[in-house]
Fold:
Amino acid sequence: MRTLRLGLAQINTTVGDLEGNAAKVLDYVGRARELGVDVLSFPEMTITGYPPEDLLLRPQFIRDNLAVLERVVKGCRGITAVVGFVDRERDIHNAAAIIHDGRLVDVYHKQFLPNYGVFDENRYFQAGTRCPVYVMAGIGVGVSICEDIWYPDDPTRAQAHAGAQVIININGSPYHLGKRHFREHMLATRASDYAVFISYTNQVGGQDELVFDGASTVVSPGGEVVAQAAAFEEELLICDLDVEETFQARLHEPRRRRQRLASAAGASVATVHVSDEPLANKKPPVEHRQAPSLGDDAEVYSALVLGTRDYLLKNGFRKAVIGLSGGVDSSLVAAIAVDALGGENVVGVAMPSRFSSEGSIRDARELADSLGIQLMTIPIEGPFTAFLDLLSDPFAGSEFGVTEENIQSRIRGLISMALSNKFGWLVLATGNKSEMATGYATLYGDMAGGFAVIKDVPKTLVYRLARYRNGLGPKPVIPQSVIEKEPSAELRPNQRDADTLPPYETLDSILEAYVEDDKSVDEIAAMGFDEELVKRVMAMVDGSEYKRRQAPPGVKISPRAFGRDRRLPIANRYKGY
Structure:
């Protein structure tokens, strides 16, 4: 039996922290070497962090990344490693360094450069053309990067037909709800199509709006998951592969012989010799870990916690401040912040007005007590009255309306930002996706902040996540009254969200169809919704694009989030309804 011991280093890198990323690589190299790992793979663009975006347009950044890689190469003695970095030839490439025993053996360049959704790699990189087979510890191994494995043809096909028994694919694959199942199905298809083991190393952690979920996976030639790392956590996953399994699988599928002949006739695949034997003499026993899958709500909640934690810590913040209204949105954001940072690092601010109900004030206090966070109470009646007096002449003869409502929200935004400026706390905005979509939010008011934790979370999912969080501990942290009461901005007497918006169950279904699926009025109406209501919702979405452009970043958890995913012009006369 020929066995290859793989290590998948699922690490949390930070964009631009070249030295910190390199130190983490060498730490995992040391741990893997002690466990007798033959080949250790790291995520995509390990050295630079992913995605570095326009840092890639700075020649000094490229040079520094190459200098750091040289030191990493020297530190990889006694092991074979695959490390992501940015290569420079006549152009720059998204690349993988193939390192063996302290020397750089070869470099693989990513061939398929994604340019959709949150990806913009054609802006920066030249595509590679080589897809060698590397002989590692006497076994044929193909190396590829992220998008390369999503295509059913080369490089995976060419490498498999040229003798690769294992494909090592390194990744920066961002999370959205449902992606993990789609990803695993794709990997199973590739593995079984080409009768290879596939090792899929994904990074973990938050980077601006993106969260990378990890869940690094090894799939057998039969399409079965044989090892899987935890989601949303750093981990060194180790797996022993019986590579004879690939030979047996190919014997039982003779049509692959014709495919190999056709592939060989079409193009030659170079073989790069790395090593004949494993460098490690001792291989302590390891168990093939398969981390349990998370349910949808647990998955999203974990992504929000990780994205919030990393956004603050990677930007140098230690504490967050949140306006607590007694509503479900701010309550959920506070719970996420506490789980991300600890209760001692979260400050709640209650800013009651003349329209705030006693129940909401009580709920905010009870939430702060249950989460163990500091609660400041700063009433806004004084400044609100001062603003009304200040504007009494220009507003003379007009009715109390949205303008006066927004003044209250903007006073609260000013207070939150003042606390941020004074104490260095990051303001966490609390608006959800349903509000961001329809513009049911105040620019420079409740939209003010440094990070909008739930800006990609529809209101109906907000309620689910609140219930999920309450089920995690011995007792609920979000008061049941918060979840049960009718949502209201409480900016005028007896105000209800339902006065302005359709019921959230209806609204969120329409928004999903329009925002994420780009369905037309007729298509959405055919789903059972009133046509005039659909047109009204679509008009609200289109008319609020200018607000969303000025909103803080927030965690992406849906297939199509506002901002990097969905890019529409602000000055736009096409309506389509």
In short: The radius of gyration is 27 Å. Residues 44 and 298 are 26 Å apart (CA to CA). The chain has a mean pLDDT of 93.
